[in-house]
Design brief:
Elements lengths: L9 E8 L6 H10 L14 E8 L2 E8 L12 H4 L4 E7 L3 H5 L1 H11 L5 E7 L11 H11 L2 E5 L7 H16 L1
Parallel strand pairs: 1-3, 1-4, 4-5, 5-6
Antiparallel strand pairs: 2-3
The protein binds guanosine-5'-diphosphate and magnesium ion.
GO cellular component, one term: endomembrane system
Main location: membrane
Subcellular location: Endomembrane system
């Protein structure tokens, strides 16, 4: 992961959004530190975590912002979105309501963020397939219609988490460079 004394070519701010308890903080923990905790509490005080990675011979520092529980009160502020070049819009594949709210999150995001922001729709908790409440086709259709990237992930099993972040960061890099 991040190395000491490394030359950084780009810093990209990416925000995590979506309903409470869909797994945003665990996706971040998995991507930034390769960790997962079953009993995750709302992160207090920590605004973002970083991970440095290489894309196309460039050193990219990804600065990933987490809502730290503010989504419960719909209090995600415009400061949160400011300067973001990427967004991970997360729902829980076992909770239909969290998918039904995705359109609302997208409106909020598009109202606050840069118009070129790269957005990945994420259906998290793919390890809980037997409890699935959101058909993958519904999400694919929505993503296609709204011009979003889409992946199902499991922060628990580390499925597609790397892929989702790297896809967004690579797209941002290609737009930026
Ligand atoms: P947040 O409120 O969106 O930040 O959600 P958290 O990351 O705090 O996760 C909410 C709950 O879902 C916690 O109990 C996590 O352990 C659990 N969780 C998160 N990701 C996954 C996953 O991929 N699979 C399963 N089975 N549980 C998950
Ligand atoms: Mg959280």
């Amino acid at each position: 992961y991040g190395e000491f004394n490394q030359r950084i070519d780009y810093v990209f701010k990416v925000v995590l959004i979506g309903d409470s308890a869909v797994g945003k903080s665990q996706l971040l923990a998995r991507f930034a530190r390769n960790e997962f905790s079953v009993d995750s509490k709302a992160t207090i005080g920590v605004e973002f975590q970083t991970r440095t990675l290489n894309i196309d011979d460039k050193t990219i520092k990804a600065q990933i912002w987490d809502t730290a529980g503010q989504e419960r009160y719909r209090a995600v502020t415009s400061a949160y979105y400011r300067g973001a070049v990427g967004a991970m819009l997360v729902y829980d594949i076992t909770k239909r309501q969290t998918f039904d709210h995705v359109a609302r999150w997208l409106d909020e995001l598009r109202g606050h963020a840069d118009r070129n922001i790269v957005i990945m729709l994420i259906g998290n908790k793919s390890d809980l397939g037997s409890l699935r409440a959101v058909p993958i086709e519904d999400a694919k259709e929505f993503a296609q219609r709204e011009n979003l990237f889409f992946m199902e992930t499991s922060a628990l099993e580390a499925t597609n988490v790397e892929g989702a972040f790297v896809t967004v960061l690579t797209e941002i890099y290609q737009i930026t460079s």
